[in-house]
Amino acid sequence: MNEQQMKKISKFISLVLRHKPEIINLNLDENGWAIVDELITKSKRDSHQGFTFEELEEIVETNDKKRFIFNEDKTKIRANQGHSIDIDLALKPQQPPEFLYHGTAQANLDSILEKGIEKRSRQHVHLSQDKETATKVGMRHGKPIILIIKTQEMFDDGIEFYLSENNVWLTDFVDAKYISM
């Protein structure tokens, strides 16, 4: 499978596991897990996005953002974060580093500095551990702006943070008072 095909299938799997499992009639459990065989079968039948287990395994292992994870025996798969559907990832609150970063587009800056960073249709606000990752995120939406988030202050003020399986920091909201540039 070439890189373009892998990317297309990865985007499709992301759509199904994070946002719209119903487009292929896929069942996710309360923690977002889907049965791998069901994903493969229903993807081929209902969307014509056919792929083998080996190709799915390659996508999971080589995805630069580590969007997906298998369970221990590779019979189930789920997205690590970014869901717009109600999923309990069973993440435990953790103490974040002193600062984290959020990449956004220049066009969003005024709104963020006024209202803070909202999760909108997702379950959490996503924060990066390094500026490079935040820059890549911001570039998807236009000219990137990197915001510095005072996460230790937030934590000290009682705000919870979670660390996803692929090392993305998650929280419910970032008030503008914790944001600097």
Automatic annotation (TrEMBL):
Q: Which NCBIfam families match?
A: PRK00819.1-4
Q: Which GO terms describe its biological process?
A: tRNA splicing, via endonucleolytic cleavage and ligation
Q: Where are the bilayer-spanning segments?
A: none
Q: Which Pfam families match?
A: PTS_2-RNA (PF01885)
Broadest EC class assigned to this enzyme:
transferase
Q: EC no.?
A: 2.7.1.-
* Record's protein name: Probable RNA 2'-phosphotransferase
Which keywords does the record carry? NAD, Transferase
Offer an example of a GO molecular function term for this protein.
tRNA 2'-phosphotransferase activity
Q: Which gene encodes it?
A: kptA
Q: Which family does it belong to?
A: Belongs to the KptA/TPT1 family.
This chain's function reads:
Removes the 2'-phosphate from RNA via an intermediate in which the phosphate is ADP-ribosylated by NAD followed by a presumed transesterification to release the RNA and generate ADP-ribose 1''-2''-cyclic phosphate (APPR>P). May function as an ADP-ribosylase.
